[in-house]
Each structure stands twice: as structure tokens, then as C-alpha cells.
Amino acid sequence: MEKxxxxxxxxxxxxxxxxxxxxxxxxxxxxxxxxxxxRNGYNNVSGLKRRFAIEVxxxxxxxxxxxxxxxxxxxxxxxxFAIDIDLMIQLLSSFEGKQIYPKDETKEEVxxxxxxxxxxxxxxxxxxxxxxxxxxxxxxxLKQNKKDVGLITAKMRVENGHFIVLKGSKxxxxxxxxxxxEARREAVISNGVLMEDVECTSxxxxxxxxxxxxxNGWLVWKTSSGEPIDIFRQSSTQ
Length: 238
Known about the structure:
Low-confidence stretches: none
Number of domains: 2
Shape: elongated
Radius of gyration: 21 Å
Order of helices and strands: EEHEHEHEHEEEHEEEHHH
Distance between the termini: 70 Å
């Protein structure tokens, strides 16, 4: 009986939020494949970063199965898919096989982290939908003293359902071990000052930009009269 062919199925995030790559490679070619993709991009999409990889039997068939299952989420005929990467990590980490990446976590730890993040993303999506529906287009303000940093001041413009932290806002260093949102990771900050506008998906993600930590965006952002934007949520239930 012919021995099942082993190989690696991997997941990579891209510079485009919500767009991931699902691919495969020979077991002895993983590092070279990651190097090429992370350096050169794929299908005109750059910023690829490895997130998960597992060595499985019949990897060709398993990759085809994944591509077929999520064909409606596929970008044309490429290996790019509009899928929550944490949900895909949950799926792949449940496969029988040897985890190749990340190397410093077990499959059980990776699955638990992905589950936690997927739930957080779901909550964040709900919060974003509510915020877009309730918060009027206007400019809002954040002002908070942080120990060892001083006064943090920032402005956020709500426009066309987007929450835009304006350049010139003062920003504290990241002061938490929790997962930092991509908007904060990619923000251009020099000497504690935001150098470019940053578009965010919710008030709480917008709060991450100046505060550098998790927060309740409904409370930290305030109107020009000093009221937290939570007044819009409260008034909708009265």
C-alpha cells in the first residue's frame, strides 16, 4: 500500500484586512516558501505574514478541499480568501498532524487563542455595526492622563461609517500584553505623535491608537460638550 504523501498547509495574513492566503508546500520547503512570500508578496498583494502551518497526510487533497469549501470567499482563481483568519486557524489546528508554525505554542494553545480571538472579533463586529448606526458624523475628543506618559489628547472624526483618528493626536506606548489591533500596529507614530490619519472599525479600536491599550471606546471618546459618546447608545434605548 502506497504511503500517504505528507506536506504542509499554511495560513498567511496579508496587508489587506480580512484577506488571507491558504496554501501548501513540501515539508522541506516551508521556510523558503515563507521567505519568498513574505518578501515578494503574492498575486500583487503584499505584506504577507505567516500565522499557522501544519504538516498533514494527503496535503494536496486537503488543500483542494479547503479551497472548494471556501470557494465563495475566494479572490478570483487565486489562493486568497476573504475569511476570518482566526476561524481558519481553529479549523486547521484541529487537523491531525504536526504543527510547524508557530513553534512556541502547542496546537491546543493555538486553538484556544484562535477561539478567543474569533469571539472577540465577533463582539467587535457587533460593536462596530451598532456604532455606525448610532454615532452621528462629527468630531470627537479623547483626553486622559496616563502614568509615566502624561496627558494624552486625540481627535476622532466619524465619517461615512468610519472612525478616523486624526493625525496630530498624542499617543502613549503600548502598555498591555494582549493582542494589539492591526490599526495600532500599523499606525505611523513618531515621538508620541500620530503622523497620519488612521481609519478604524469601531470606537474601541480607535481608542487603541492614542491609549495603547484596550478600552471602552463608548466612554473614552467624548463630544465637544464633554459627554461620552455612550449618550447616543443610551438615548436609542429610551
